[in-house]
Write a structure and sequence with these properties.
This protein is of the alpha+beta class. The chain is 33% helix and 24% strand. The longest helix has 45 residues.
């Protein structure tokens, strides 16, 4: 009578060894991510600073130089070198070749069609007008929502937008609103873009909200920016 055949069995991998290997790989990946982030962070910050500087000169076309100011305790003061120690909203004053104060560049943001839209716009407190705007960040649909950066009628309606203060200087005389394409009748209205209604309306809403807050403050504190 023949002996029974023994079927070889495979030893199961040690779970501890597998876990240790997975943890080790995870630590290495995390370390690489941190090193990559820290290595590229200075360049990213530099590029953002350059883009912001370019945007300031675009929204305040008459300027030759700019300076950052922080708003705290009811007034504006030049932003110190150790900006991390300063806490408060920051705006950017622009000056012409004669060191004369021209206007202020202000950041604003709001919900668009595909996500948050961040913009920079210029404000001339003497003329009480918006002088232009620049898109800092947008995820709007290419060919539709991104027309806010190129549509001539839309851009023309923003540059020169009336943000006149009311008699008490506590708010806008007329709220900034976005109209349908071709229906703009007043200087405080933004010309909407056909096919990008939500996005163009978002810009109007951002300007309305931001200007309602900042226009009275900046208008009354213009002397803070004088050199």
């Amino acid at each position: 009578m023949s002996e029974p055949t023994t079927i070889p069995t495979t030893t199961a991998p040690n779970s501890f060894i597998m876990l240790r290997a997975m943890v080790g790989i995870g630590i290495i990946c995390a370390l690489l991510i941190v090193l990559t982030y820290e290595g590229t962070k200075p360049r990213i910050q530099m590029l953002r600073a350059e883009a912001l500087e370019q945007a300031i000169f675009e929204v305040l076309p008459a300027i030759t130089q700019s300076a950052a100011f922080i708003y705290k305790d009811g007034s504006f003061a030049p932003l110190g070198e150790d900006s991390k120690a300063d806490k408060g909203p920051v705006v950017y004053a622009g000056y012409d070749a004669n060191d004369q104060f021209v206007g202020v560049a202000i950041e604003g943001s709001g919900q668009g069609y595909a996500g948050t839209i961040k913009i920079l716009y210029g404000y001339d407190p003497e003329a009480q007008q918006v002088t232009g705007f620049y898109v800092l960040e947008s995820k709007e649909t290419p060919g539709l929502g991104d027309k806010i950066e190129s549509d001539e009628d839309f851009l023309a309606s923003v540059a020169g937008l009336d943000v006149q203060l009311n008699a008490a200087q506590t708010g806008l005389e007329h709220t900034v609103v976005t109209t349908k394409d071709g229906e703009r009748e007043h200087p405080w209205q933004v010309e909407g873009i056909s096919g990008a209604t939500i996005t163009s309306r978002a810009i109007g809403d951002i300007l309305a909200s931001s200007m309602s807050h900042w226009a009275p403050i900046i208008y009354q504190r213009q002397n803070d920016f004088q050199r």
